[in-house]
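Q: Can I borrow your eye for a moment on a structure tokenisation matter? Would you mind producing a protein record, from residues through to fold? Write it directly below this note and I will take it from there.
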Amino acid sequence: MVKVEKDLKVIPNSLQDADCKHNLIIILAAGNGEAINDKIYKGIKNNTNSDGFGDVQQALKDLYRNKCAYCESPEFNPQIEHYRPKKGLMTKNSALKWKKVETHKGYYWLCYDWSNLVPSCASCNGIGRGKDVKFPLLNESKRIFKPTVDNNAIALNEIEKPYLLHPEIDEPKNFFRFDDKGNIFGTDTAGRGEMTIEICWLRANETLRFNRKDQVFDYYTDALIAALNLSDVVAKQGLIKKIIEKLYRDLHNPEKSFRLYRWYFYTHFKEFLAISLLPQPEIDFILGIYEEVYEENSEAK
């Protein structure tokens, strides 16, 4: 997960046209989500493009660069995920088991709200191991059961204080860390990072863990180790610098997957290098070049 800036004033047509407004009136009058039309929030009722994507789905694909909002895996046909569940919800009971909140009908009034929609892969949003309708709060007494004056995710997050991180509101860098195996861990004392990991199945998903490790830790460390085999010191130094510079470019490239892990790898480079089993002289050689690149990029900001 990385922070994404969404302009809440630039809304897909499907979420503000006459059909949407009329349907929302029906939903609000009923006080539940039974009348929610998925063709509206997917944007496929009247605004499908030549690729078969509705305007909402296409806008989210463009904003998130064809990646899942939660795990950052490539996703070219994302599900339109409701950050706050639109029909019913689940939270954790005193025994730390997921349970349905029988008295809550879901945040049906946010079904077409642009701030409540993010793109997700089937794994992160799946029933059972994935998010589904899980939406626990730090304090359940703060939960909102009906429409409020400020009907958007930002305003409601200030009131409810949900566990689940929102990539357009929260800064993920403040909540996660990684290890050399591609595992992700929560770091905040409130437990929002760990709960987000559990809700979206970000650590237990072995395929996801492998892909993170393969595309980040293995990719850069293997390249560095290969560079060390060059006999020419100048050539060796030049190649290692290019690899570290590429890491820096990649973590800032919105087209890349797993940018949060790339950022963590770059900012904790010394720690990761220490567990690479390289001889200390070679570690020191690489670190000297890394510090040069780090300083150059810091000065360029």
